[in-house]
Amino acid sequence: MGTWGGDYRALGGSEVKVTPLRIAVQKSGRLAERSRDMLERAGLAPDWRSGRLDCQCADFPLSVMQVRDDDIPAYLADGVVDLGIIGENVLEEKLRGGLADSRIQVLSRLAFGRCRLALAVPSSEADPGLSVLSGKRIATSYPETLRRWLTAQDIKADVVMVSGSVEIGPALGLADAVCDLVSSGQTLAQNGLKVLTTVFASEAVLARSSRHLGEEGESLLQRLAARLDGVRRAQQAKYVMMNAPRDAVDAIRAVIPGLEEPTVIPLAGQDRVALHAVAAEQVFWDTLEKLKELGATGILVVPIEKIIA
Ligand code: PRT
Ligand code: ZN
Questions:
Q1: Residue 187: CB within 6 Å of ligand 1?
Q2: Residue 4 and residue 20 in contact, taking contact as beta carbons nearer than 8 Å
Q3: For the chain, N or C: smaller number of CB within 10 Å?
Q4: How many Å lie between the centroid of ligand 2 and the Cα of residue 182?
Q5: 308/127 Cα distance (integer angstroms)
Q6: 178 CB under 6 A from ligand 1?
Q7: Is the distance from CB of 63 to CB of 45 less than 8 angstroms?
Q8: Mind giving me the DSSP string for 222-234?
Q9: Whose CA is nearest to atom 21 of ligand 1?
Q10: 17 band by pLDDT with thresholds 50, 70 and 90
């Protein structure tokens, strides 16, 4: 299709104006690399080295804006960008803080950047019930999400806004508890804290602006979203092959997560079959062990590069 030098596309010899879509991704931080990787796998690779805020893709009318994650919800709401890859936790906080949710729509969950916003108290706290929070000071960078949760739980506590290093709040005497993002839990443990409960479970999502795009823009956006969805599905899915007893096929289907209709090929002169299928989710070692117990042999689990439904 050639290079998108500007807003024009060659179509049967004539030039048709196409306004590129804009997607915002985190510039640097925990979501940055995976976001860029998804775009590249979807055939949307701008020249990242250009150093520009707005990088044009060569083979698709898309420009990629690399920004701080906190800015992405407002950009989506204002229609500054059409799409964004953002942690649900940030989106939730901004929406609770007054951003109109009618202006942003989550298209898909992207299966990376998984974490949870959790309430944690000093490990020495004997009573692990939620009632320990009553009347306490809770340090967090997510005041709106926390306040909403406290109200829903009918707990009265003081929310102390901290913009970084929330986990040291109790040691500094600034707070009695914290509400912070947790993935492995190591940071909390190192600071003598333990999780009391999860306030909000999060992962990276693809979100769009509700701004009206017109027919051409809308169709571009749908193509782009479908590509990213294909990448996500391929990243999670595996192609599984094995030989197995014919009468174990049903049991095998029950064991493999998200197994689609398998191809079952009889093996000549045997009561065994070759079974090939796409498993929609990760296949872990314990699944392989169960397959062996069901008589499967020669099990192969192969990555998939692209899936188009
Ligand atoms: O500069 P910019 O504003 O863009 O980035 P940022 O510093 O605000 O965000 P960044 O890059 O730290 O995180 C971006 C997003 O990654 C978050 O909004 C979440 O959606 C997601 N994410 C996933 C996490 C974590 N996992 C995570 N573990 N964000 C933060 N953490 C913190 C956690 O709070 C702890 O302090 O990482 C530390 C290590 O966690 P443990 O539990 O593994 O010890
Ligand atoms: Zn941020």
A1: yes
A2: yes
A3: C
A4: 15
A5: 51
A6: no
A7: no
A8: HHHHHHHHHHHHH
A9: 113
A10: low
For ligand 1, whether the C-beta of 40 sits within 6 Å is no
Confidence (pLDDT) at 16: 53
Q: pLDDT digit string (tens) for 158-210? A: 999 999 999 999 999 999 999 999 999 999 999 999 999 999 999 999 999 99
pLDDT band at 51 (very low <50, low <70, confident <90, very high): low
Q: What is the DSSP string of 47-82?
A: -GGG--SEEEBSSSSEEEEEE-GGGHHHHHHHTS-S
d(CA 241, CA 301): 7
Going by their DSSP bridges, the two strands 62-67 and 54-56 should be labelled as antiparallel
Strand order in the sheet with 238-245: 263-266, 272-279, 238-245, 297-303
Residue that is written with structure tokens 């979100």 in the block: 207
Query: Residue 36 in contact with residue 25, Cβ under 8 Å?
Result: yes
Cβ burial of 9 (10 Å; 0-12, 13-18, 19+) is middle
Ligand 1 contact, 185 CB (< 6 A): yes
In which band, very low, low, confident or very high, does the pLDDT at 308 lie, cut at 50, 70 and 90?
Answer: confident
DSSP code string of 114-178: -EEEEEEEETT-S--SGGGGTT-EEEES-HHHHHHHHHHHT---EEEE-SS-GGGHHHHTS-SEE
For residue 306, what pLDDT is reported? 84
Which ligand is in closest contact with the Cα of 67? 1
| Cα–Cα dist 99/77, whole Å | 7
